[in-house]
User: What shape does this take?
Amino acid sequence: MQFDYKDFHIEASPLDEGGHYYARAKIYRRASVGGDTVEVKWSGDLGDYPSDAAAIEAAQRWAIQWCDENSA
Assistant: This one.
């Protein structure tokens, strides 16, 4: 799932490993007009969850919290 939040673009996705879904997120600073998008944070694995939907939700929560704590 990809979405924009404040000045960031977030990619929240699960990694499926044999029935376990690991939450992950990448956060990019949205580019200004004519600029490139820059990756600012990669979460790594955020824990395993029983479904891909639960993993995506966890990744979204983590990314939003990180953006709130690191907004300039």
About this structure: The chain has one domain: 2-70.
